[in-house]
Amino acid sequence: SRAPPTMSQPAPSTDSLVNLQCPIPISDYPTVTLAHGGGGRLTQMLIERMLLPAFSNPQLASLHDGALLAVNGARLAFSTDSFVISPLFFPGGDIGSLAVHGVVNDLAVCGAEPRYLTLSAIIEEGLEWTTLDRLVASFARAAREAGAVVACGDTKVVRHGEGGGLYLSVAGIGELVAQTPPSPHRICEGDTLLVSGPVGDHGIAVMLAREQFGLSGNLKSDSASVLTLTRAVWDLPGMHFLRDPTRGGLATVAHEIARATQFGVVLEQARIPVRDAVTSVCEMLGYDPYYLACEGRVVAVARPDIAEEVLRRWHALPGGELATRIGHIEGGKPRVTLATALGGRRLLDELEDDPLPRIC
């Protein structure tokens, strides 16, 4: 049998996959699994081995949350995302506002102000009208708050049992405002990593809302627009990279940085903010908060001499009060290590399985 190629090997041609002539496997799994949508290693393999070769567009490999476009002199950012979260309502948000925040945040970390959104709704037969009305109103309210106009959309209805109540697919166009847009390719050895607030809130809040484990608590999702936080630092000349740590959480963003830069990423355990409630649930159920989705946080990579200015600006804004330094970029192998509270180091592997499917 033929062993799967490593990540460094060339991606298969589209023809070999479509025609199934000597196919190169997308992963060790014979079919698509939930883990292929979890944001970790299998998601990356799916993208690099099937999707990127199919479209032959170098810009798709930019390793950012959106594409930067120039149209008749206009500088634009363009992003798209889909939302399949269960349950539809959770402490701190719902699928309507989450869908807006997700796309707005992707544009914001590219250095763009959101201008236009699309909305495609796949509705499951049997969804109550009052539920749909609440979710549409939530979407509309979040769009207005972000300063974006819903310009077009589509609706489809699927049979009962063939959907999760409501799936939303959203695209967004933004006006590029940052003079030098944040990019992973601007990251330098010695740069500082920062995060705008505690990690893991969204993942644990949604998990508790599912009531799968007989647990309850007052924890809320961090689902929110990060536009105000990103606006505050776009103009800083040493701001090299911004990313919202959604699927796969903080650890997955760190691996994306290592892969794009070929530098090492060091996270400092004692500095990473995690709420006590998140830590407690993770310890009981065996989750790692560094791999859990956030929906209202920003990870920044900045020149060390401006790190304090980033924190000063974030601390003055809602959602940034608990911002802190969490690590740095180092030379050597492109890997992610955790500097533990005891003074040692351990490797943080790429996310393999999907710990909490349908989290966003």
What distinguishing features does this structure have?
14 strands, 9 helices, 5-stranded mixed beta sheet, alpha+beta, disordered N terminus, 360 residues, 7-stranded mixed beta sheet, single chain
| Structural class based on helices, strands and sheet pairing | alpha+beta
Query: What string gives the helices and strands in order?
Result: HHEEEEHEHEEEHHEHEHEHEEE
Oligomerization status of the protein chains: single chain
Q: What is the strand arrangement across the widest sheet?
A: 9-11-8-12-10-13-14
* Biggest sheet character: 7 strands, mixed
Unreliable segments (pLDDT under 50, ≥5 consecutive)? 1-23
Cα separation of the termini = 37 Å
Overall pLDDT confidence:
88
Backbone shape: globular
How does this structure look, described?
The protein has 360 residues and is α+β, with helices and mostly antiparallel strands. The protein has helices at residues 14-18, 41-55, 95-108, 129-146, 201-210, 227-231, 249-261, 276-285, 307-315; strands at 67-71, 74-83, 89-90, 93-94, 112-124, 149-158, 166-176, 192-195, 239-243, 264-268, 299-302, 324-330, 336-339, 345-347. It has a 7-stranded mixed sheet with strand order 9-11-8-12-10-13-14, with helices on both faces. A 5-stranded mixed sheet has the order 1-2-7-5-6, covered by helices on one side. Helix 3 packs parallel to helix 4. The longest helix is centred in the middle third of the chain and has 18 residues, at 129-146. The model is unreliable at 1-23 (pLDDT under 50).
